[in-house]
Amino acid sequence: MSILPRVGDDLPRLVEEVLRRLGEDPAREGLLGTPERVARSLRYLTEGYDLDVRDAVGDALFEQDYDEIVAVRDIQFYSLCEHHLLPFFGTAHVAYLPRGRVVGLSKIPRLVDLHAHRLQLQERMTRQIAESLEEVVRPDGVAVVVEARHLCMEMRGVEKAGSQTVTSCMLGCFRTDARSRAEVLALLRARP
After folding, report:
1. pLDDT digit string, tens, across residues 127-157
2. pLDDT tens digit string along 5-60?
3. What CATH number did the domain enclosing 112 receive?
4. Could you tell me the pTM of the whole model?
5. Contact indicator for 140, 133 with CB cutoff of 8 Å
6. Active-site residue numbers?
7. How many domains does the chain have?
8. What is the pLDDT of residues 114-128, one digit of tens each?
9. Are residues 96 and 151 in the same domain?
10. Are residues 34 and 111 in the same domain?
11. Contacts for 98 with CB less than 8 Å, ≥ 6 apart
12. Residue 40's domain spans which residues?
């Protein structure tokens, strides 16, 4: 479920109207079924509106006496730019410093997807991922770095193919302590 079903079942009809206004014939063979496919696609790509951070994590919080950095790198994501409704995609790198409890590792990519599956700005999505992890786990620090390509910059506008945008959000000790920040950034940048 996403926010789109709440506007009614007329989304396929609206897509059909867009096709007509673009000068297309929605009845031609190649476009048959396109309005329904586009509606399903948009519902999937915006399902994050109906997901709650605590539901995404569920009961995957565990009391654990571990006080070193936990990092999950190279989490692929796909999102839609809220300005042009064009895709942006890339990888998110997420780390936290536990304070008496840890979260199941698979829940970190779920938090990324929860926020990516909304109309987004990369800057806001980066902060939302960090704040969600902080809210649920209550660690000493959270670090999120997102690297993405934006088709609104590659297909239109400045048309700079392959350019990457990098954003970061540091909370807790990763924001206030330079040594902790340097350590987490080295972990997130490390390559095998």
Report:
1. 999 999 999 999 999 999 999 999 999 998 8
2. 444 579 999 999 999 999 999 999 999 999 999 999 999 999 999 999 998 999 99
3. 3.30.1130.10
4. 0.91
5. no
6. 81-84, 122, 150, 152
7. 2
8. 999 999 999 999 999
9. yes
10. no
11. 64, 66, 67, 68, 70, 137, 139, 140
12. 4-47
